[in-house]
Specification:
Length: 606
Amino acid sequence: MAFGDGRRPARESLKDAQEKAGPPPGVWMGRGLSALGLTAGEAVTQRQMELVFGMGRHPDADRIERERLDDGDTPAEAWLATVLGQPAEKIEKRKQTPLFAFDFVFRAQASLIVLWALGDDRTRRVIERAYERAIATVLCWLEDEVAETRWASGRKRAKAPALVVARWRHFDNRDGFPLLHDHCLILNRVQRPDGSWYALDTRRLYQHVVAAGTFYTLTMTTEVCEELGLATVPRQVTPGLRPVMEIAGVDSELIDWSSTRRQRIEDVLEGLTYKFAQEHGRLPGERARHGLGWQAAQDTRPEKKTPRPLKQLLAWWRASALLKFGKQMVDGLLRRCRAAGAAIRARVDPRVDAVLAAVDVAAVVSTVRGKFARRHVLAEARRHLLETLRGQEFTRGLDDYIADRALSDHSRQSTVPKPGRRTPDADQLFYTADFAEPDRWWIAGTDGKPPRESSRYERARVASLAVQNAIRAARTSPVAARDDAPAAGHTENHHDQASDPPHAVDHPGRDAVLTPAQRAAAVQAHQQAAMPEEYLEGRTTDPATWLRTPENLERLAAFTRTANARRRAFEARPKPEQPADVVKPADQQQHHTNRPDHGRGAGRDR
Protein backbone atom coordinates (compact mmCIF):
# COMPACT_ATOMS: atom_id res chain seq x y z
CA MET A 1 0.00 0.00 0.00
CA ALA A 2 2.81 2.41 0.80
CA PHE A 3 4.27 1.75 -2.66
CA GLY A 4 1.20 2.38 -4.81
CA ASP A 5 -0.10 -1.22 -4.68
CA GLY A 6 3.22 -2.39 -6.06
CA ARG A 7 6.07 -4.49 -4.66
CA ARG A 8 9.10 -2.56 -3.47
CA PRO A 9 12.43 -3.93 -4.72
CA ALA A 10 14.35 -5.94 -2.15
CA ARG A 11 17.09 -4.19 -0.16
CA GLU A 12 15.82 -0.76 -1.24
CA SER A 13 14.41 1.73 1.24
CA LEU A 14 10.84 2.94 0.90
CA LYS A 15 11.93 6.54 0.33
CA ASP A 16 14.37 5.65 -2.47
CA ALA A 17 11.83 3.36 -4.14
CA GLN A 18 9.16 6.05 -4.05
CA GLU A 19 11.48 8.63 -5.57
CA LYS A 20 12.33 6.29 -8.44
CA ALA A 21 8.85 4.97 -9.17
CA GLY A 22 6.81 8.11 -8.53
CA PRO A 23 4.07 7.32 -5.95
CA PRO A 24 3.75 10.12 -3.38
CA PRO A 25 4.77 9.46 0.23
CA GLY A 26 2.15 9.08 2.91
CA VAL A 27 1.25 11.98 5.20
CA TRP A 28 0.07 12.12 8.80
CA MET A 29 -3.43 13.39 9.69
CA GLY A 30 -5.66 13.60 12.75
CA ARG A 31 -5.89 15.47 16.03
CA GLY A 32 -3.95 12.82 17.93
CA LEU A 33 -0.62 13.60 16.26
CA SER A 34 0.50 16.09 18.90
CA ALA A 35 0.48 13.37 21.58
CA LEU A 36 3.03 11.45 19.50
CA GLY A 37 5.18 14.44 18.56
CA LEU A 38 3.99 14.41 14.93
CA THR A 39 2.73 17.22 12.69
CA ALA A 40 -0.17 17.17 10.24
CA GLY A 41 1.12 16.92 6.67
CA GLU A 42 4.46 15.46 7.72
CA ALA A 43 5.71 12.58 5.53
CA VAL A 44 5.41 9.06 6.91
CA THR A 45 8.79 7.31 7.07
CA GLN A 46 9.45 3.62 6.72
CA ARG A 47 10.63 3.29 10.31
CA GLN A 48 7.52 5.04 11.62
CA MET A 49 5.37 2.59 9.67
CA GLU A 50 7.24 -0.35 11.17
CA LEU A 51 6.95 0.96 14.72
CA VAL A 52 3.37 2.29 14.70
CA PHE A 53 1.48 -0.10 12.41
CA GLY A 54 3.78 -3.11 12.73
CA MET A 55 4.49 -3.17 16.46
CA GLY A 56 2.01 -0.79 18.09
CA ARG A 57 4.79 1.43 19.45
CA HIS A 58 5.57 5.15 19.52
CA PRO A 59 6.78 6.49 16.12
CA ASP A 60 9.92 7.80 17.87
CA ALA A 61 10.41 4.67 19.96
CA ASP A 62 14.12 4.32 19.14
CA ARG A 63 14.99 7.68 20.68
CA ILE A 64 12.73 7.17 23.71
CA GLU A 65 14.22 3.74 24.36
CA ARG A 66 17.80 5.07 24.23
CA GLU A 67 16.97 7.90 26.63
CA ARG A 68 15.30 5.55 29.10
CA LEU A 69 18.31 3.22 29.02
CA ASP A 70 20.60 6.19 29.68
CA ASP A 71 18.44 7.09 32.69
CA GLY A 72 19.01 3.65 34.20
CA ASP A 73 15.90 1.75 33.16
CA THR A 74 16.16 -1.93 32.36
CA PRO A 75 15.77 -2.95 28.71
CA ALA A 76 12.32 -4.34 29.46
CA GLU A 77 11.23 -1.12 31.15
CA ALA A 78 12.65 1.03 28.35
CA TRP A 79 10.89 -1.07 25.72
CA LEU A 80 7.57 -1.02 27.62
CA ALA A 81 7.70 2.78 27.81
CA THR A 82 7.40 2.95 24.01
CA VAL A 83 4.37 0.64 23.69
CA LEU A 84 0.98 2.19 22.91
CA GLY A 85 -1.62 0.26 24.86
CA GLN A 86 -1.32 -3.48 25.42
CA PRO A 87 1.90 -5.06 24.11
CA ALA A 88 1.48 -7.26 21.06
CA GLU A 89 3.16 -10.16 22.86
CA LYS A 90 0.57 -10.07 25.62
CA ILE A 91 -2.24 -10.18 23.06
CA GLU A 92 -0.63 -13.06 21.19
CA LYS A 93 -0.35 -15.08 24.41
CA ARG A 94 -4.15 -15.09 24.53
CA LYS A 95 -4.05 -16.65 21.03
CA GLN A 96 -5.39 -13.45 19.50
CA THR A 97 -4.04 -11.41 16.60
CA PRO A 98 -3.22 -7.81 17.50
CA LEU A 99 -5.06 -5.26 15.38
CA PHE A 100 -3.07 -2.06 14.98
CA ALA A 101 -4.99 -0.18 12.25
CA PHE A 102 -8.05 0.05 10.03
CA ASP A 103 -7.79 0.78 6.32
CA PHE A 104 -10.46 3.30 5.31
CA VAL A 105 -10.44 3.76 1.51
CA PHE A 106 -11.84 6.96 0.00
CA ARG A 107 -12.55 7.12 -3.72
CA ALA A 108 -14.56 9.41 -5.95
CA GLN A 109 -17.35 8.48 -8.35
CA ALA A 110 -16.32 7.11 -11.73
CA SER A 111 -17.36 10.26 -13.60
CA LEU A 112 -15.25 12.50 -11.34
CA ILE A 113 -12.29 10.18 -11.83
CA VAL A 114 -12.70 10.51 -15.62
CA LEU A 115 -12.80 14.32 -15.31
CA TRP A 116 -9.71 14.24 -13.11
CA ALA A 117 -7.80 11.99 -15.51
CA LEU A 118 -8.72 13.71 -18.79
CA GLY A 119 -9.35 17.28 -17.66
CA ASP A 120 -6.96 20.23 -17.71
CA ASP A 121 -4.64 21.21 -14.86
CA ARG A 122 -7.19 23.55 -13.21
CA THR A 123 -9.92 20.90 -13.25
CA ARG A 124 -7.51 18.42 -11.73
CA ARG A 125 -6.50 20.83 -8.96
CA VAL A 126 -10.14 21.61 -8.11
CA ILE A 127 -11.01 17.91 -7.84
CA GLU A 128 -7.94 17.09 -5.76
CA ARG A 129 -8.57 20.02 -3.41
CA ALA A 130 -12.21 19.01 -2.88
CA TYR A 131 -11.10 15.40 -2.52
CA GLU A 132 -8.64 16.22 0.29
CA ARG A 133 -11.07 18.54 2.08
CA ALA A 134 -13.79 15.88 2.02
CA ILE A 135 -11.45 13.32 3.59
CA ALA A 136 -10.44 15.79 6.31
CA THR A 137 -14.11 16.64 6.95
CA VAL A 138 -15.10 12.99 7.33
CA LEU A 139 -12.19 12.28 9.67
CA CYS A 140 -13.23 15.24 11.84
CA TRP A 141 -16.79 13.87 11.89
CA LEU A 142 -15.49 10.47 12.98
CA GLU A 143 -13.49 12.12 15.76
CA ASP A 144 -16.40 14.27 16.95
CA GLU A 145 -19.31 11.87 16.64
CA VAL A 146 -18.14 8.28 16.32
CA ALA A 147 -14.74 7.42 17.79
CA GLU A 148 -14.85 5.97 21.31
CA THR A 149 -12.68 3.81 23.48
CA ARG A 150 -14.03 1.34 26.00
CA TRP A 151 -12.57 -0.83 28.73
CA ALA A 152 -13.70 -3.01 31.65
CA SER A 153 -15.63 -5.28 29.24
CA GLY A 154 -17.45 -2.30 27.78
CA ARG A 155 -18.77 -1.00 31.10
CA LYS A 156 -16.66 2.14 30.84
CA ARG A 157 -16.53 4.34 27.76
CA ALA A 158 -14.97 7.61 26.75
CA LYS A 159 -15.00 9.77 23.65
CA ALA A 160 -11.87 9.62 21.51
CA PRO A 161 -11.78 12.93 19.62
CA ALA A 162 -8.12 12.57 18.58
CA LEU A 163 -7.28 9.96 15.93
CA VAL A 164 -3.90 9.18 14.39
CA VAL A 165 -4.13 8.62 10.63
CA ALA A 166 -1.60 7.94 7.86
CA ARG A 167 -2.93 8.72 4.38
CA TRP A 168 -1.52 7.17 1.18
CA ARG A 169 -2.64 8.24 -2.30
CA HIS A 170 -2.97 5.93 -5.30
CA PHE A 171 -3.68 7.09 -8.84
CA ASP A 172 -4.66 3.96 -10.79
CA ASN A 173 -6.15 0.51 -10.51
CA ARG A 174 -4.28 -2.75 -11.02
CA ASP A 175 -4.81 -2.52 -14.79
CA GLY A 176 -3.19 0.92 -14.95
CA PHE A 177 -6.40 2.86 -15.67
CA PRO A 178 -7.42 5.94 -13.63
CA LEU A 179 -8.72 5.26 -10.13
CA LEU A 180 -8.01 8.12 -7.73
CA HIS A 181 -8.29 6.76 -4.18
CA ASP A 182 -6.67 7.23 -0.78
CA HIS A 183 -5.91 4.64 1.87
CA CYS A 184 -6.30 6.10 5.37
CA LEU A 185 -4.73 3.90 8.04
CA ILE A 186 -6.49 4.76 11.32
CA LEU A 187 -4.37 3.72 14.28
CA ASN A 188 -6.29 1.42 16.63
CA ARG A 189 -4.92 3.26 19.63
CA VAL A 190 -6.35 6.40 21.27
CA GLN A 191 -5.78 8.16 24.56
CA ARG A 192 -8.15 7.75 27.46
CA PRO A 193 -8.92 10.71 29.76
CA ASP A 194 -6.08 9.63 32.08
CA GLY A 195 -3.54 9.82 29.22
CA SER A 196 -3.08 6.07 28.77
CA TRP A 197 -3.47 4.48 25.35
CA TYR A 198 -6.16 1.94 24.56
CA ALA A 199 -7.92 0.40 21.57
CA LEU A 200 -10.84 1.96 19.72
CA ASP A 201 -14.36 0.59 19.88
CA THR A 202 -13.99 -1.22 16.56
CA ARG A 203 -17.61 -2.35 16.35
CA ARG A 204 -18.84 1.22 16.63
CA LEU A 205 -16.39 2.40 13.98
CA TYR A 206 -17.48 -0.25 11.49
CA GLN A 207 -21.16 0.49 12.13
CA HIS A 208 -20.70 4.06 10.86
CA VAL A 209 -18.74 3.23 7.71
CA VAL A 210 -21.71 3.76 5.37
CA ALA A 211 -22.67 7.06 7.00
CA ALA A 212 -19.07 8.22 6.66
CA GLY A 213 -18.97 7.17 3.00
CA THR A 214 -22.16 9.04 2.09
CA PHE A 215 -20.88 12.12 3.93
CA TYR A 216 -17.64 11.99 1.93
CA THR A 217 -19.47 11.63 -1.39
CA LEU A 218 -21.92 14.43 -0.61
CA THR A 219 -19.19 16.82 0.58
CA MET A 220 -16.78 16.22 -2.28
CA THR A 221 -19.36 16.20 -5.07
CA THR A 222 -20.99 19.40 -3.81
CA GLU A 223 -17.69 21.31 -3.72
CA VAL A 224 -16.62 20.16 -7.19
CA CYS A 225 -20.01 20.98 -8.71
CA GLU A 226 -20.11 24.42 -7.12
CA GLU A 227 -16.54 25.25 -8.15
CA LEU A 228 -16.84 24.08 -11.78
CA GLY A 229 -20.54 24.75 -12.40
CA LEU A 230 -21.48 21.08 -12.74
CA ALA A 231 -24.45 18.96 -11.64
CA THR A 232 -25.20 15.30 -11.03
CA VAL A 233 -27.59 12.79 -12.59
CA PRO A 234 -28.60 9.31 -11.41
CA ARG A 235 -26.83 6.43 -13.15
CA GLN A 236 -28.33 2.99 -12.83
CA VAL A 237 -25.50 0.53 -12.21
CA THR A 238 -27.52 -2.47 -11.01
CA PRO A 239 -31.25 -2.60 -11.88
CA GLY A 240 -33.40 -2.30 -8.79
CA LEU A 241 -30.69 -0.91 -6.51
CA ARG A 242 -29.93 2.67 -5.59
CA PRO A 243 -28.61 4.74 -8.49
CA VAL A 244 -25.15 6.28 -8.34
CA MET A 245 -25.07 10.06 -8.69
CA GLU A 246 -22.57 10.84 -11.46
CA ILE A 247 -21.50 14.09 -13.09
CA ALA A 248 -23.91 15.06 -15.88
CA GLY A 249 -22.29 15.14 -19.31
CA VAL A 250 -19.70 12.42 -18.73
CA ASP A 251 -20.43 9.79 -21.36
CA SER A 252 -21.08 6.25 -20.22
CA GLU A 253 -18.46 5.07 -22.72
CA LEU A 254 -15.79 7.05 -20.86
CA ILE A 255 -16.92 5.58 -17.55
CA ASP A 256 -16.75 2.07 -18.99
CA TRP A 257 -13.29 2.84 -20.39
CA SER A 258 -11.96 3.68 -16.93
CA SER A 259 -13.81 0.80 -15.20
CA THR A 260 -11.84 -2.00 -16.82
CA ARG A 261 -12.59 -4.69 -14.24
CA ARG A 262 -16.38 -4.36 -14.23
CA GLN A 263 -16.97 -6.48 -17.34
CA ARG A 264 -14.67 -9.25 -16.08
CA ILE A 265 -16.43 -9.20 -12.71
CA GLU A 266 -19.86 -9.39 -14.37
CA ASP A 267 -18.79 -12.36 -16.52
CA VAL A 268 -17.55 -14.28 -13.46
CA LEU A 269 -20.57 -13.20 -11.43
CA GLU A 270 -22.92 -14.70 -14.02
CA GLY A 271 -21.28 -18.11 -13.55
CA LEU A 272 -21.34 -17.82 -9.76
CA THR A 273 -25.02 -16.90 -9.86
CA TYR A 274 -25.83 -19.93 -12.02
CA LYS A 275 -23.92 -22.19 -9.62
CA PHE A 276 -25.77 -20.69 -6.64
CA ALA A 277 -29.13 -21.30 -8.33
CA GLN A 278 -28.19 -24.93 -9.09
CA GLU A 279 -27.19 -25.61 -5.47
CA HIS A 280 -30.03 -23.76 -3.70
CA GLY A 281 -32.87 -24.01 -6.19
CA ARG A 282 -33.44 -20.26 -6.24
CA LEU A 283 -31.81 -17.04 -7.30
CA PRO A 284 -29.61 -15.25 -4.73
CA GLY A 285 -31.14 -12.56 -2.57
CA GLU A 286 -29.65 -9.13 -1.98
CA ARG A 287 -27.26 -10.27 0.77
CA ALA A 288 -26.14 -13.27 -1.29
CA ARG A 289 -25.61 -11.06 -4.35
CA HIS A 290 -23.24 -8.87 -2.36
CA GLY A 291 -21.26 -11.93 -1.29
CA LEU A 292 -21.10 -13.31 -4.82
CA GLY A 293 -20.00 -9.92 -6.11
CA TRP A 294 -17.15 -9.79 -3.61
CA GLN A 295 -16.10 -13.33 -4.59
CA ALA A 296 -16.15 -12.38 -8.29
CA ALA A 297 -14.02 -9.31 -7.58
CA GLN A 298 -11.46 -11.40 -5.74
CA ASP A 299 -11.38 -14.06 -8.45
CA THR A 300 -10.67 -11.47 -11.15
CA ARG A 301 -8.14 -9.43 -9.19
CA PRO A 302 -4.89 -9.13 -11.18
CA GLU A 303 -1.40 -9.21 -9.73
CA LYS A 304 0.20 -6.08 -8.38
CA LYS A 305 2.18 -3.94 -10.79
CA THR A 306 5.11 -1.56 -10.69
CA PRO A 307 3.82 1.96 -9.92
CA ARG A 308 4.45 4.84 -12.31
CA PRO A 309 4.60 8.63 -11.88
CA LEU A 310 1.37 10.60 -12.28
CA LYS A 311 2.75 12.61 -15.20
CA GLN A 312 3.43 9.44 -17.16
CA LEU A 313 0.01 8.01 -16.28
CA LEU A 314 -1.79 11.17 -17.42
CA ALA A 315 -0.06 11.04 -20.79
CA TRP A 316 -0.91 7.36 -21.22
CA TRP A 317 -4.56 7.86 -20.24
CA ARG A 318 -5.00 10.74 -22.67
CA ALA A 319 -3.41 8.79 -25.51
CA SER A 320 -5.62 5.80 -24.79
CA ALA A 321 -8.80 7.93 -24.68
CA LEU A 322 -7.89 9.82 -27.88
CA LEU A 323 -7.23 6.59 -29.70
CA LYS A 324 -10.57 5.10 -28.67
CA PHE A 325 -12.93 8.11 -28.65
CA GLY A 326 -11.30 10.85 -30.69
CA LYS A 327 -10.13 14.37 -29.91
CA GLN A 328 -13.57 15.99 -30.05
CA MET A 329 -15.04 13.75 -27.35
CA VAL A 330 -12.03 14.02 -25.03
CA ASP A 331 -11.32 17.77 -25.36
CA GLY A 332 -14.99 18.72 -25.16
CA LEU A 333 -15.63 16.77 -21.97
CA LEU A 334 -15.62 19.69 -19.53
CA ARG A 335 -17.64 21.87 -21.90
CA ARG A 336 -20.37 19.25 -22.18
CA CYS A 337 -20.42 18.77 -18.41
CA ARG A 338 -20.84 22.50 -17.81
CA ALA A 339 -23.63 22.77 -20.37
CA ALA A 340 -25.51 19.85 -18.81
CA GLY A 341 -24.86 21.24 -15.32
CA ALA A 342 -26.23 24.69 -16.25
CA ALA A 343 -29.42 23.12 -17.62
CA ILE A 344 -29.96 21.06 -14.48
CA ARG A 345 -29.23 23.96 -12.12
CA ALA A 346 -31.79 26.07 -13.95
CA ARG A 347 -34.47 23.46 -13.22
CA VAL A 348 -33.65 22.36 -9.67
CA ASP A 349 -34.66 24.58 -6.77
CA PRO A 350 -31.76 24.79 -4.27
CA ARG A 351 -34.23 24.50 -1.38
CA VAL A 352 -35.29 21.25 0.26
CA ASP A 353 -38.69 20.53 1.77
CA ALA A 354 -37.65 18.88 5.02
CA VAL A 355 -41.10 17.37 5.60
CA LEU A 356 -41.10 15.45 2.31
CA ALA A 357 -37.40 14.61 2.70
CA ALA A 358 -38.06 13.05 6.10
CA VAL A 359 -40.88 10.96 4.61
CA ASP A 360 -38.70 9.69 1.78
CA VAL A 361 -35.77 8.88 4.07
CA ALA A 362 -37.90 7.06 6.65
CA ALA A 363 -39.81 5.09 3.99
CA VAL A 364 -36.67 3.92 2.21
CA VAL A 365 -34.82 2.91 5.37
CA SER A 366 -37.77 1.15 7.00
CA THR A 367 -38.77 -0.75 3.85
CA VAL A 368 -35.23 -1.82 3.01
CA ARG A 369 -34.04 -2.65 6.53
CA GLY A 370 -37.11 -3.22 8.72
CA LYS A 371 -35.35 -2.18 11.94
CA PHE A 372 -32.84 0.65 11.79
CA ALA A 373 -30.70 2.97 13.89
CA ARG A 374 -30.00 6.67 13.51
CA ARG A 375 -26.82 6.01 11.52
CA HIS A 376 -28.87 4.27 8.81
CA VAL A 377 -31.27 7.22 8.62
CA LEU A 378 -28.41 9.72 8.53
CA ALA A 379 -26.73 7.89 5.63
CA GLU A 380 -30.01 7.88 3.67
CA ALA A 381 -30.55 11.59 4.42
CA ARG A 382 -27.19 12.36 2.86
CA ARG A 383 -28.05 10.27 -0.19
CA HIS A 384 -31.33 12.15 -0.45
CA LEU A 385 -29.60 15.54 -0.39
CA LEU A 386 -27.18 14.51 -3.13
CA GLU A 387 -29.99 13.13 -5.29
CA THR A 388 -32.34 16.08 -4.72
CA LEU A 389 -29.95 19.04 -4.88
CA ARG A 390 -27.95 17.60 -7.78
CA GLY A 391 -24.63 18.95 -6.53
CA GLN A 392 -25.84 22.35 -5.31
CA GLU A 393 -24.64 23.71 -1.98
CA PHE A 394 -26.59 22.85 1.18
CA THR A 395 -26.54 24.32 4.66
CA ARG A 396 -24.37 22.24 6.98
CA GLY A 397 -26.41 20.35 9.52
CA LEU A 398 -29.38 19.85 7.19
CA ASP A 399 -28.65 16.12 6.96
CA ASP A 400 -28.82 15.77 10.75
CA TYR A 401 -32.06 17.75 10.86
CA ILE A 402 -33.74 15.55 8.23
CA ALA A 403 -32.57 12.40 10.05
CA ASP A 404 -33.96 13.66 13.38
CA ARG A 405 -37.22 14.65 11.70
CA ALA A 406 -37.56 11.20 10.11
CA LEU A 407 -37.05 9.51 13.49
CA SER A 408 -39.38 11.79 15.44
CA ASP A 409 -42.23 12.02 12.91
CA HIS A 410 -42.27 8.66 11.13
CA SER A 411 -40.55 6.13 13.41
CA ARG A 412 -41.04 4.56 16.80
CA GLN A 413 -38.38 3.20 19.11
CA SER A 414 -38.20 -0.59 19.29
CA THR A 415 -35.28 -0.85 21.72
CA VAL A 416 -36.54 -1.37 25.29
CA PRO A 417 -33.99 -0.50 28.03
CA LYS A 418 -33.54 -3.36 30.47
CA PRO A 419 -33.76 -2.64 34.20
CA GLY A 420 -30.44 -2.71 36.00
CA ARG A 421 -28.39 -2.34 32.82
CA ARG A 422 -26.72 0.67 31.26
CA THR A 423 -29.06 2.85 29.20
CA PRO A 424 -28.15 2.52 25.51
CA ASP A 425 -26.65 5.53 23.80
CA ALA A 426 -28.83 7.48 21.39
CA ASP A 427 -27.10 6.05 18.33
CA GLN A 428 -27.49 2.49 19.65
CA LEU A 429 -31.29 2.68 19.77
CA PHE A 430 -33.23 0.88 17.05
CA TYR A 431 -36.47 2.01 15.45
CA THR A 432 -39.20 0.76 13.15
CA ALA A 433 -41.87 2.45 11.05
CA ASP A 434 -45.35 1.68 9.76
CA PHE A 435 -45.13 2.38 6.05
CA ALA A 436 -47.49 0.26 3.97
CA GLU A 437 -45.15 -1.85 1.86
CA PRO A 438 -46.53 -2.41 -1.66
CA ASP A 439 -46.95 -5.90 -2.98
CA ARG A 440 -44.20 -7.30 -5.16
CA TRP A 441 -44.37 -6.88 -8.90
CA TRP A 442 -42.33 -8.10 -11.85
CA ILE A 443 -40.32 -5.94 -14.24
CA ALA A 444 -39.66 -6.93 -17.84
CA GLY A 445 -36.04 -7.78 -18.55
CA THR A 446 -33.80 -6.01 -21.06
CA ASP A 447 -31.14 -7.34 -23.44
CA GLY A 448 -32.70 -10.79 -23.43
CA LYS A 449 -32.65 -11.14 -19.64
CA PRO A 450 -35.63 -12.74 -17.86
CA PRO A 451 -38.09 -10.62 -15.86
CA ARG A 452 -36.97 -9.75 -12.37
CA GLU A 453 -38.83 -9.19 -9.14
CA SER A 454 -39.08 -5.67 -7.78
CA SER A 455 -36.40 -4.88 -5.23
CA ARG A 456 -36.96 -3.60 -1.72
CA TYR A 457 -35.60 -0.22 -2.77
CA GLU A 458 -38.14 0.09 -5.60
CA ARG A 459 -40.96 -0.88 -3.25
CA ALA A 460 -39.67 1.69 -0.75
CA ARG A 461 -39.94 4.47 -3.34
CA VAL A 462 -43.57 3.54 -4.00
CA ALA A 463 -44.34 3.55 -0.26
CA SER A 464 -42.64 6.93 0.07
CA LEU A 465 -44.58 8.40 -2.85
CA ALA A 466 -47.92 7.36 -1.34
CA VAL A 467 -47.22 9.26 1.89
CA GLN A 468 -45.76 12.27 0.08
CA ASN A 469 -48.87 12.53 -2.11
CA ALA A 470 -51.03 12.41 1.00
CA ILE A 471 -49.03 15.30 2.48
CA ARG A 472 -49.35 17.29 -0.73
CA ALA A 473 -53.10 16.63 -0.83
CA ALA A 474 -53.46 17.78 2.77
CA ARG A 475 -51.56 20.96 1.99
CA THR A 476 -53.78 21.82 -0.97
CA SER A 477 -57.18 20.83 0.48
CA PRO A 478 -59.62 23.66 1.31
CA VAL A 479 -60.19 22.14 4.78
CA ALA A 480 -56.50 22.39 5.56
CA ALA A 481 -56.45 25.99 4.37
CA ARG A 482 -59.39 26.87 6.66
CA ASP A 483 -57.74 25.09 9.58
CA ASP A 484 -54.49 26.98 9.01
CA ALA A 485 -56.26 30.37 8.99
CA PRO A 486 -56.30 32.04 12.47
CA ALA A 487 -59.64 32.78 14.08
CA ALA A 488 -60.85 36.39 14.16
CA GLY A 489 -59.33 38.32 17.04
CA HIS A 490 -57.09 35.36 17.96
CA THR A 491 -53.38 36.24 17.97
CA GLU A 492 -51.87 33.30 19.83
CA ASN A 493 -49.18 31.51 17.80
CA HIS A 494 -49.46 27.72 18.11
CA HIS A 495 -46.40 27.08 15.94
CA ASP A 496 -43.87 25.02 17.82
CA GLN A 497 -40.59 26.92 17.54
CA ALA A 498 -38.65 23.90 18.82
CA SER A 499 -39.62 22.00 15.68
CA ASP A 500 -38.28 24.70 13.36
CA PRO A 501 -35.34 23.59 11.25
CA PRO A 502 -32.11 25.45 11.96
CA HIS A 503 -31.86 26.67 8.36
CA ALA A 504 -34.02 28.98 6.30
CA VAL A 505 -33.63 26.78 3.24
CA ASP A 506 -35.42 23.74 4.66
CA HIS A 507 -38.95 24.72 3.61
CA PRO A 508 -39.49 26.39 0.21
CA GLY A 509 -41.33 29.65 0.63
CA ARG A 510 -41.41 29.50 4.45
CA ASP A 511 -41.14 33.27 4.75
CA ALA A 512 -43.06 34.06 1.56
CA VAL A 513 -46.82 34.54 1.44
CA LEU A 514 -47.88 31.52 -0.61
CA THR A 515 -51.19 29.76 -0.89
CA PRO A 516 -51.20 26.03 -0.17
CA ALA A 517 -51.69 25.37 -3.89
CA GLN A 518 -48.64 27.46 -4.78
CA ARG A 519 -46.56 25.77 -2.13
CA ALA A 520 -47.58 22.30 -3.32
CA ALA A 521 -46.86 23.25 -6.93
CA ALA A 522 -43.35 24.39 -5.98
CA VAL A 523 -42.69 21.17 -4.11
CA GLN A 524 -44.06 19.07 -6.97
CA ALA A 525 -41.84 20.88 -9.49
CA HIS A 526 -38.85 20.41 -7.21
CA GLN A 527 -39.48 16.69 -6.88
CA GLN A 528 -39.91 16.27 -10.63
CA ALA A 529 -36.65 18.14 -11.23
CA ALA A 530 -34.94 15.74 -8.87
CA MET A 531 -36.17 12.77 -10.93
CA PRO A 532 -36.49 14.07 -14.53
CA GLU A 533 -38.20 12.01 -17.19
CA GLU A 534 -35.73 13.01 -19.89
CA TYR A 535 -32.01 13.29 -20.02
CA LEU A 536 -31.04 16.92 -20.51
CA GLU A 537 -29.15 16.19 -23.70
CA GLY A 538 -32.45 15.30 -25.38
CA ARG A 539 -32.17 11.54 -25.02
CA THR A 540 -34.70 9.52 -23.07
CA THR A 541 -33.50 7.92 -19.87
CA ASP A 542 -32.07 4.44 -19.82
CA PRO A 543 -34.86 1.80 -19.82
CA ALA A 544 -33.67 0.46 -16.50
CA THR A 545 -34.40 3.82 -14.80
CA TRP A 546 -37.94 4.34 -16.13
CA LEU A 547 -39.42 3.03 -12.90
CA ARG A 548 -38.06 5.95 -10.87
CA THR A 549 -40.18 8.63 -12.55
CA PRO A 550 -43.04 9.99 -10.42
CA GLU A 551 -45.66 8.96 -13.03
CA ASN A 552 -44.57 5.32 -13.05
CA LEU A 553 -44.28 5.20 -9.28
CA GLU A 554 -47.80 6.57 -8.98
CA ARG A 555 -49.08 4.06 -11.55
CA LEU A 556 -47.49 1.17 -9.64
CA ALA A 557 -49.02 2.45 -6.41
CA ALA A 558 -52.43 2.55 -8.14
CA PHE A 559 -51.95 -1.02 -9.36
CA THR A 560 -51.14 -2.09 -5.80
CA ARG A 561 -54.22 -0.38 -4.38
CA THR A 562 -56.47 -1.97 -7.03
CA ALA A 563 -55.01 -5.44 -6.45
CA ASN A 564 -55.45 -5.10 -2.68
CA ALA A 565 -59.07 -4.03 -3.14
CA ARG A 566 -59.82 -7.07 -5.34
CA ARG A 567 -58.15 -9.38 -2.85
CA ARG A 568 -60.16 -7.96 0.06
CA ALA A 569 -63.41 -8.24 -1.93
CA PHE A 570 -62.64 -11.85 -2.77
CA GLU A 571 -61.83 -12.72 0.84
CA ALA A 572 -65.03 -11.02 2.04
CA ARG A 573 -67.32 -13.15 -0.14
CA PRO A 574 -69.41 -15.68 1.85
CA LYS A 575 -68.24 -19.22 1.38
CA PRO A 576 -70.84 -21.80 0.23
CA GLU A 577 -71.88 -24.22 2.92
CA GLN A 578 -71.01 -27.89 2.31
CA PRO A 579 -73.72 -30.47 3.13
CA ALA A 580 -72.95 -32.38 6.29
CA ASP A 581 -73.74 -35.79 4.76
CA VAL A 582 -71.21 -35.41 1.94
CA VAL A 583 -68.25 -37.71 2.56
CA LYS A 584 -65.08 -37.50 0.52
CA PRO A 585 -63.93 -40.62 -1.28
CA ALA A 586 -61.11 -42.53 0.34
CA ASP A 587 -58.69 -41.61 -2.43
CA GLN A 588 -59.24 -37.92 -1.61
CA GLN A 589 -58.74 -38.32 2.15
CA GLN A 590 -55.01 -37.94 2.06
CA HIS A 591 -52.79 -36.19 4.51
CA HIS A 592 -51.47 -32.93 3.16
CA THR A 593 -47.69 -32.57 3.26
CA ASN A 594 -46.26 -29.07 3.30
CA ARG A 595 -43.92 -28.24 0.49
CA PRO A 596 -40.69 -26.44 1.33
CA ASP A 597 -42.26 -23.20 0.06
CA HIS A 598 -45.70 -23.78 1.61
CA GLY A 599 -47.29 -20.55 2.77
CA ARG A 600 -45.02 -18.35 0.69
CA GLY A 601 -46.04 -16.12 -2.15
CA ALA A 602 -44.91 -16.94 -5.63
CA GLY A 603 -42.47 -14.06 -5.65
CA ARG A 604 -41.36 -14.10 -2.07
CA ASP A 605 -37.64 -14.17 -1.26
CA ARG A 606 -36.50 -17.55 -0.02
